Amino acid sequence: MTDGLRIAGHAGRSRVNGPGVRAVLWVQGCSLACPGCFNPQTHAPDGAVTTVQAVVERLLVDREGLDGVTFSGGEPFEQAEALAAVARGLRAAWPAVHLMAYSGYAYEQLRGPAAPPGSAALLAALDMLVDGPFATKALGHGAWRASRNQRVWVLGRPPPTWAAPADAEITIGEEGQVLLSGLPDPGLRRAVDRLR
Ligand code: SF4
Question: Which CATH architecture has domain 4-167?
Answer without folding.
Answer: Alpha-Beta Barrel (3.20)
